[in-house]
């Protein structure tokens, strides 16, 4: 347990530093470029992240599960084949995404429907999305290989630090506060992170360098599994981006900027739990693959105990420091501490119900996972539209939290009924 906490603490500390750098980037944009540019930044990053998720066609999420299973087998070249297959898929997908983006932008300008978001969003998709897709896929592979530091720190720490340094330099050197400076900084940071991950995977790619191309059967199997994981990743990891883009249709720029900040803090709060999952998820998947139920229960118990204690402490900290924290970005944000607490509150229930999605994935119940998550996303969008006229931005926060709670409780019930595994904190010991 001490070794586990030490590893988790190291990952969490590194991700915390990266998150602080991300917050600093947001503060610099808000203070130096204005809240209007911060709103454009929020929309562009959300859109680029969604395209980045689509480019690998779900292989980035499948990578953690598939590579963890393959690493338990003696056929190491199979991992190399999986990486090569993923890179090939991403190259083809990006070409299609670039063509569609160019055609869409041309149509928008020709019809006179362009807005302040159109041009920067298109550039972000073309320049930022493919690099982020590469980072996500390589990160999933490295986590599956139980190399969490190589998989996480390049994207979680190096990328924001490089972007922050370049943004500071741009603010110092250039008087013009154009959005191009922001975009250049974040794209360069992502490119540096991608280079580090590629270098970390060189030993793996050198295994059986004369190995054959992946068989047609393997490619079909990976494609079949990844289709569900594409939808799962969009609905699970990028629900925030989907909701933010939808709210940009009716909410004011100041409210979009506020939601962006609250959701970034929500992501920061989740770093500790994410670090815990990065360390224990491959072990749980391997235990499930070996049908070692006692070990599976022990690992789930450890994860649940640490995750629940951590998230309760984090929420308590936000209840005290939420108002001054939001005021760092804009003095007007300080009045919306309640919105921040509502956005983060759903994480408590998710921690209590445990790693149900991991257990379902190990039993290849991706279809069940996707169906429930899709219902959650649809519910969040419907509630946001319904509650906004009465509650304003607080209504959007409530919509998000209710949908996350529904997904967490539903996932727990599915794992219990379909996999005969109770992942909740009360069903598993802590040692």
Report on this structure:
With 431 residues, this protein is mostly helical. Helices cover 82% and strands 0% of the residues. The protein has 18 helices and no strands. The termini are close together. InterPro entries: Poly_Biosynth_Transport. Keywords: Cell membrane, Membrane, Transmembrane, Transmembrane helix. Its main location: membrane. It is a multi-pass membrane protein. The chain crosses the membrane at residues 12-33, 39-59, 94-115, 121-145, 157-174, 180-198, 301-321, 333-357, 369-388, 394-415.
N- to C-terminal distance? 8 Å
Overall pLDDT level: 82
The major pleated sheet works out as:
none
Percentage beta strand:
under 5%
SS summary, helix count = 18
Rg (C-alpha, Å): 21 Å
The arrangement of helices and strands along the chain is: HHHHHHHHHHHHHHHHHH
- Portion of residues in helices? over 70%
**Can you count the beta strands?**
0
- In one word, what is the shape? globular
Unreliable segments (pLDDT under 50, ≥5 consecutive)? none
Helix/strand/pairing class, anyone? mainly alpha
């Amino acid at each position: 347990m001490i070794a586990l906490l030490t590893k988790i603490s190291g990952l969490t500390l590194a991700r915390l530093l990266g998150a602080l750098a991300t917050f600093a980037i947001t503060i610099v944009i808000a203070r130096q470029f204005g809240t209007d540019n911060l709103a454009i930044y929020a929309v562009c990053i959300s859109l680029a992240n969604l395209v980045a998720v689509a480019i690998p066609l779900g292989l980035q999420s499948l990578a953690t599960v598939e590579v963890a299973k393959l690493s338990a087998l003696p056929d190491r070249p199979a991992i190399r084949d999986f990486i090569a297959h993923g890179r090939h898929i991403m190259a083809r997908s990006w070409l299609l995404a670039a063509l569609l983006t160019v055609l869409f932008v041309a149509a928008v300008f020709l019809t006179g429907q362009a807005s302040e978001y159109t041009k920067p969003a298109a550039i972000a998709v073309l320049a930022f999305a493919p690099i982020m897709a590469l980072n996500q896929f390589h990160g999933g592979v490295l986590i599956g290989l139980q190399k969490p530091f190589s998989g996480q720190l390049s994207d979680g720490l190096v990328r924001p630090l490089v972007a922050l340094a370049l943004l500071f330099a741009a603010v110092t050197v250039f008087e013009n506060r154009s959005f191009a400076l922001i975009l250049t900084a974040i794209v360069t940071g992502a490119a540096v992170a991608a280079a580090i991950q590629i270098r970390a995977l060189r030993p793996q790619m050198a295994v059986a360098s004369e190995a054959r191309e992946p068989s047609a059967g393997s490619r079909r199997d990976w494609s079949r599994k990844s289709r569900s994981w594409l939808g799962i990743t969009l609905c699970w990891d990028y629900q925030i981006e989907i909701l933010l883009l939808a709210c940009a249709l009716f909410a004011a720029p100041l409210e979009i900027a506020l939601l962006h900040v609250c959701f970034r803090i929500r992501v920061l709060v989740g770093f500790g739990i994410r670090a815990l999952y990065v360390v224990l998820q491959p072990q749980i998947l391997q235990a499930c693959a070996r049908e070692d139920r006692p070990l599976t229960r022990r690992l789930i118990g450890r994860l649940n105990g640490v995750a629940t204690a951590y998230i309760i402490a984090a929420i308590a900290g936000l209840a005290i420091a939420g108002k001054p924290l939001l005021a760092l970005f804009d003095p007007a944000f300080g009045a919306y501490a309640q919105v921040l607490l509502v956005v983060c509150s759903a994480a408590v229930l998710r921690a209590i119900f445990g790693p149900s999605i991991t257990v379902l994935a190990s039993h290849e119940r991706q279809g069940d996972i996707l169906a429930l998550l899709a219902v959650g996303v649809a519910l969040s969008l419907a509630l946001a539209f319904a509650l906004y006229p009465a509650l304003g931005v607080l209504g959007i926060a409530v919509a998000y939290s209710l949908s996350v709670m529904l997904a967490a409780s539903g996932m727990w019930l599915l794992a219990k009924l379909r996999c005969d595994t109770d992942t909740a904190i009360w069903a598993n010991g802590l040692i």
